[in-house]
C-alpha cells in the first residue's frame, strides 16, 4: 500500500477573485507536494481574515459561525484521508478532493443508483416493468425535494429511518396518478423496487449495509375475481347486441380456455397454431412477461372462437381481433353489469378462470396447470389455483364413497367368518 509522506490542509483567500475587499475562501490540500484547491463557497472581508491562524479574526461579524464551519471542513477532509487509507486506496490531493466533493466512485448517490439500474435494465426488463421503475424514480425525487430538502442523497446516508419516512410519504403524499391513489400494495411495490436497487448497490459494493435489512414488505392478499362454472356458461350463452361486446366476450372466453394473458393473446398469429404430438391443434408461443415457452392444447371452445374470426383478422395477420387492454377491461365491466355478475372483471380474470374453474375443478393436476400457464415455479401457480367449495365437495364425496365401500367390504368379511 502506498501512503503519503506529507499531508496538510489549510485555508486561504483567493485575492485574484477579490471584489470590493471581499474575497472567496478556498481550502488547499497538499499531499507529497501536489496540491488540490477547493472553493468553500464562503467569502470574507480581507481586513477580517487572520493570515496566521487561517481563520476569521475574533470579534468580527459572523466570525464564530464561519470558524466553526472551517473547523468542520477541516475535520471532514481528515476523515476523507482516513477513509482512503482504510480502503487501501492511493492517497493523493485529488483523491481527497474528489472524496470530499462526493465525486469519487465510492460516493455514489441514490439517483446514480436509479440511473445505473434503469439504463442497464432496458434490455432485460419488459417495457411495462421498466415503466414502473420510472414511476418509483419520480416518487423518490418528490420525496427528496419535499422531505430531505435536497435533489439527491448519498447512498451511505440511507438508513432504516429513510425507508420508513419514504413509506409514510407514499401513503400520505399526493399520488402521481390522481385518479388512482396509492393503496397498500402500490406502496409496497415501490418499496420492493427500491429494495431490489439497494441489493444491486450491495453487489456493486456501493454500500456496506442494506437499509432494508430490518424492513419487511407487507402485502395485502386479495382474492382475484374469476368466473364460476355457471357464470362462465352464462357468459358463453348470452346474446349480446353490441358487436364490440361480442368480440370482447369471445376473446375473453378464448383466454378462459387457454390461460393466456392479454399481451400473449394479442401477439398470437397463425404461425403459433401447430399440430401437436397427439395430432390435435396446439398453441406454441412464448410468454411476453417471462419469455417462458408454453405449449397449450386447444380446447373445443377456443377452436370455435378461432374459426369464427378466421377470415376477419386484421392486416398484420393476428389470430384474433383485439382491442386495447384498457378498452377490453371497460367492455368486460359493462358485460358483467348487463349479466348482473357481481364481480370486478378484468381480462386477467380469464387467466384465473382457466386455472381454477376450467382446469383444477375438472381434476387437472396443479403441475399440469402450472406448465400450461408458463410458470417456472409451482408456488406462482398457487396464487391462481384457489380450491373452491365445489372442488372440496367433489373430493369429499369421493372420499366418502371410498370409506363407505371399505366399511362394507370389512362387514362382509366379518359376516363370512
Description:
The protein has 15 helices and 8 strands. With 417 residues, it is mainly alpha-helical. The protein folds into 3 domains: 7-101, no CATH class; 110-203; 229-386, hpI Integrase, Chain A, CATH 1.10.443.10. It has a 3-stranded antiparallel sheet with strand order 1-2-3. A 3-stranded antiparallel sheet has the order 6-7-8. The radius of gyration is 34 Å and the shape is elongated. The protein starts with 6 loop residues before the first strand and ends with a helix. The relative contact order is 0.06. The mean pLDDT is 88.
List the helices and strands and how they pair.
Layout: E1 7-13, E2 22-31, E3 34-45, E4 49-50, E5 55-56, H1 63-86, H2 93-101, H3 110-120, H4 127-148, H5 160-172, H6 184-203, H7 229-237, H8 243-256, H9 262-266, E6 273-275, E7 281-286, E8 293-297, H10 300-308, H11 325-338, H12 348-359, H13 366-373, H14 378-384, H15 389-415
Antiparallel strand pairs: 1-2, 2-3, 4-5, 6-7, 7-8
